[in-house]
Amino acid sequence: MNKKSILFITHHNNDFDHFLPLICNYVQNKDFVVKILAFYSNDEILKNKLHQHICRENSIELESMAEVCHLKALNYFINNIYSYSLTSKESKKTKNIVEKINQAIIGFLKSPKNTILQYSKLMILRYHVICSIFMLNENKIKEYIKLNNIDLLIIDQRSVDKELISSNPFKGFIDSYLRKIDPMNLVLFRVTNVARKCGIPIFMMPHGPQPISQGNLDKRNKLRIENQKNPFRPDHLILCSSKEINSLHYMKGLKSTSCLGDPRFDIEWINYLESCALEAYESTISKPVGKIVLLYLMDIFTYDVENNLSFKQEMNKDILSLVNYFPELEIWVKHHPRDVYKISLDFIDINRRNNIKQFGNDTDTNILLAKADICLAASSTVLISPILQKKPVIFYSKWKNVLQNVTCIYDGMTFEASSKEQLIEMVELIKNSNYSIKDSFLQPFYKNVFSGECLYENMLEKYIVKIDEILEKPM
């Protein structure tokens, strides 16, 4: 029997998470060949230690978009210089002339204050964007697809007007420059379009559950979707739950639309990620002795239809000021991957400011989840993992004071706080071990979020059955 070949198109390090359960499954299955095309480079996908660890452990290999483009040799050279400067460290003095030259290059790139390195990073990213628009043309994509005998293309959930998916590089560049289309979407859907012309089915996976019922809180994004005359539709659209069908009706699959949940939230996968995170980070991130760690999982919502940040900042202040009331509390702030910024701590007692730590994209959320005593979020779907593990969690729903007639997947939780005073009360209760999550909450929660028939239903298995069904049908 001929092996089936599945191509995953990945971009950004946090979106790689959506594919990993499926990738790990198919890499271990000898009846399948897994190809992973990384946009724009492998370094973009493998930013943190956990992803690197999982890829090593499962022998997962990625191909960079730059390896498929024209100018492959030049791209290979540029990527190696950049990757080398990021991963190498200055070593002790040596008499070896080659090592001396290496140290001199690294020292130059990393000084002063990484200015040159940051500038290089920006320039290389711009180069990758332009290179992908002009050099990843239809012929190159067809060549890659045929060379690897691709049978199924898997992408994540995204929307774009078909009119803007141009194979003409000059039109694509102008549309990107005028911000009619994100350059990543332009190139990703160019690959998808060519795959469709070659008769390859398109399988679109979800980013995760929709935490808030109100359509789209980002007015610009909502307007962009409404202005789409002819949105691209996959052959097979996968949603987390049946509740999402109404809001994503414009993306309905041409052949099927299925509600299969999200394999990232299978309890086996959650526990696997936690064990891998502990191995990957070892002692680099440790819980302070004698402290209670509260992990604040940030999101990208402003909870304001006018996109006003003031209310979000007020919520941040409520949460972080908890250290003023609990001297034994340390708060770890995990910023959303697409919105990393330094929060001012002027409102924190000067002697307690060291009790707040902030983490960006260089630290994977799973190691923080593994170490935390309490997890708190206003709407982040990452909170689902500790809920299913029955760990102490707090849902901060103060934003409902400004958003009317809105529901959230965390509604009904016992430990829900809608004010700063209630937050203090919840932390006090958890600190005194007065906490539990009952199956009577988890069962309807699971069904609501994942359309699951029973608690801890294996969602990965549902995806495998669906993919098998697609691959068995003649193209």
From TrEMBL:
Keywords (A to Z) from UniProt: Transferase
GO MF term (any one): transferase activity
Gene3D superfamilies listed in its UniProt record: 3.40.50.12580
Protein name: Glycosyl/glycerophosphate transferase, teichoic acid biosynthesis
Native source organism of the sequence: Methanolobus tindarius DSM 2278
Lineage: Archaea, Methanobacteriati, Methanobacteriota, Stenosarchaea group, Methanomicrobia
